[in-house]
């Protein structure tokens, strides 16, 4: 073959390859259309692969059309797809990737009209789902400083006014060898702890932000330690704090050298742990994971102050009138194997009382038994009830029971009430900070406390975020609420969807599995009070919740976490 013919053949093949690429290139409108189809389909959203395909298509479009006017839009929708995936999967890693994608869009196209939307979305994820107020503040501030003409500026300014301004940590240069003690030096103010059925939490309260990196020493005397740079110890700090709960022996603090204060957690056995740095107020939280063993459990010396007086355990500490529940041990497997169903109230606590003197504790017990029956029969799972008769059980003992038996889900059943007898509808709650006054009022009623107590509880609720399955509970609540509304509307008139809400409910505190509180109807409404006493209504509520659990179980299998 002559060189001329070879050159001509290569030219033809190159042209064919070029036009083939062009013919296979997707349009922005086609990908956007499929994206909107995905977000409208609850069924499609349950499979991770559907999200990933859209992400890859937007990514490919931006690579091939970087100069197109649609490239910034595609990059923004790529971030939004990650955002949607993170909500479907409940994974914080997916949420962090969504933040990264929003930031990447804003950095690459800072003058585009969607850049401020990207930064605001990043701030919302950081604030409400990653619980990183400092990062959220930075993103909102970036928006207001760099994009003052954006349509999201006013919303960003509102969030900035509601968030604490992060303090800049002032750390002397590393080369400095002498410890400088000044009035402004950070202080380790207090050490608090709380022992749950599956972990021990130790909280270190600080006067200012401090950097720290934890380390684990293995062997016969395992321990976790970290150093606080240029940090003083408060005069009243207990430097040798015994815990002696079978998992953690004690917490020791001492001056290690001129520059560092060392903190040591002595363990009875090697264990996994989580370390978190929280703000407002500043504190380190160390969760040592594992159930305490009998060996090594001792009582602190008499006369000492209880270190848990101001913890969640102290706030919820009351004397139950029933003996400690005997619970079987349950092996933890993948998927949903065991569900604990909680009938709200009971015994000396009647709950809300209807216009015709129907008691909430009775209708919740009826619904709980029916729900347990249907879950066993239709899903083949093991179901345990927190109570099967009219007895009083402390709120905190209910989730403690679920934790100890190794439950995979916790469902607490209730009947709502309001001052106005016209109020009606269905709603499902999960544990979080209440977003409105109505949610706070429901939490106060179910907790048996005042609104002020709810406010005090919210102030320390962030200390429980590491172990509460917030994202998973949110998804479970959404599936249950959707199934209840869809299941009851064909059979009853005036079924109002009050939606999924969040609030600081005592009965959900401390749960280490996805957990929700269902308000099946308003017992204060005459029409709904009558429904609550009906076996048919109780069966249909149970049927709907089973469908919601089944749909949630599908998301566990199909929306895989990375």
From TrEMBL:
Domain MurNAc-LAA: residue ranges: 399-550
Sorted UniProt keywords: Hydrolase, Signal
MF annotations from Gene Ontology: N-acetylmuramoyl-L-alanine amidase activity
InterPro entries: AMIN_dom, MurNAc-LAA_cat, N-acetylmuramoyl_amidase_3, TPR-like_helical_dom_sf
Top enzyme class: hydrolase
UniProt GO cellular component terms: outer membrane-bounded periplasmic space
Tagged with keyword Ligase: no
GO biological process, one term: peptidoglycan catabolic process
UniProt key word Lyase: no
Catalytic activity as recorded in UniProt: Hydrolyzes the link between N-acetylmuramoyl residues and L-amino acid residues in certain cell-wall glycopeptides
Enzyme Commission code(s) on record: 3.5.1.28
SMART domains listed in its UniProt record: Ami_3
Signal peptide as annotated in the record: 1-25
Listed PANTHER family: N-ACETYLMURAMOYL-L-ALANINE AMIDASE (PTHR30404), N-ACETYLMURAMOYL-L-ALANINE AMIDASE AMIC (PTHR30404:SF0)
Name this polypeptide is given: N-acetylmuramoyl-L-alanine amidase
């Amino acid at each position: 073959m002559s060189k001329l013919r070879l050159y001509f053949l290569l030219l033809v093949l190159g042209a064919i390859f070029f036009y083939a690429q062009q013919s296979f290139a997707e349009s922005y409108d086609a990908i956007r259309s499929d994206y909107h189809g995905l977000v409208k389909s609850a069924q499609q959203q349950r499979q991770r692969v559907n999200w990933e395909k859209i992400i890859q298509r937007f990514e490919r479009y931006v690579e091939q059309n970087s100069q197109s006017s649609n490239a910034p839009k595609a990059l923004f929708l790529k971030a939004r797809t990650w955002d949607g995936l993170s909500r479907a999967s409940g994974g914080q890693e997916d949420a962090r990737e969504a933040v990264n994608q929003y930031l990447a869009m804003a950095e690459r196209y800072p003058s585009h009209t969607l850049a401020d939307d990207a930064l605001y979305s990043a701030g919302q994820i950081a604030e409400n789902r990653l619980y990183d107020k400092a990062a959220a503040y930075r993103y909102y501030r970036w928006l207001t400083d760099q994009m003052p003409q954006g349509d999201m500026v006013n919303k960003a300014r509102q969030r900035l006014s509601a968030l604490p301004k992060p303090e800049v940590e002032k750390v002397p240069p590393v080369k400095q060898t002498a410890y400088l003690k000044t009035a402004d030096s950070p202080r380790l103010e207090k050490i608090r702890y709380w022992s749950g059925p599956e972990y021990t939490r130790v909280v270190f309260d600080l006067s200012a932000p401090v950097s720290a990196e934890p380390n684990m020493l293995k062997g016969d005397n395992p321990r976790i330690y970290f150093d606080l740079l240029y940090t003083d110890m408060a005069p009243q700090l207990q430097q040798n704090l015994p815990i002696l709960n079978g998992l953690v022996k004690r917490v020791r603090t001492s001056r290690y050298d001129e520059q560092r204060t060392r903190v040591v957690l002595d363990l009875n056995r090697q264990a996994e742990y989580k370390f978190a740095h929280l703000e407002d107020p500043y504190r380190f939280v160390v969760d040592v994971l594992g159930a305490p063993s009998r060996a090594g459990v001792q009582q602190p010396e008499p006369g000492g102050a209880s270190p848990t007086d101001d913890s969640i355990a102290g706030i919820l500490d009351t004397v139950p009138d029933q003996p400690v529940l005997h619970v079987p041990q349950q092996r933890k497997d993948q998927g949903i194997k065991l569900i604990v169903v909680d009938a709200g109230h009971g015994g000396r606590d009647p709950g809300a009382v209807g216009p015709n003197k129907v008691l909430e504790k009775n209708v919740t017990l009826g619904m709980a038994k029916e729900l347990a029956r249907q879950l066993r029969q239709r899903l083949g799972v093991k179901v345990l009830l927190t109570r099967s008769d009219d007895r009083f059980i402390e709120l905190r003992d209910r989730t403690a029971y679920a934790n100890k038996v190794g439950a995979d889900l916790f469902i607490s059943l209730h009947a709502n009430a309001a001052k106005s007898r016209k109020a009606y509808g269905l709603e499902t709650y999960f544990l979080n900070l209440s977003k409105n006054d109505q949610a706070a009022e429901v939490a106060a009623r179910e907790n048996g406390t005042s609104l002020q107590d709810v406010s005090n509880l919210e102030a320390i609720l962030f200390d429980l975020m590491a172990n509460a399955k917030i994202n998973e509970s949110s998804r479970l609540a959404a599936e249950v609420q959707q199934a209840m509304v869809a299941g009851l509307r064909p059979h009853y008139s005036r079924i109002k969807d009050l939606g999924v809400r969040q609030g600081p409910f005592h009965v959900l505190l401390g749960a280490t599995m996805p957990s929700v509180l269902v308000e099946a109807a308003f017992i204060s409404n005459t029409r709904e009070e009558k429904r609550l006493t009906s076996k048919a209504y109780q069966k249909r509520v149970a049927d709907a919740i089973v469908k919601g659990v089944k749909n949630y179980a599908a998301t566990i299998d199909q929306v895989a976490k990375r």
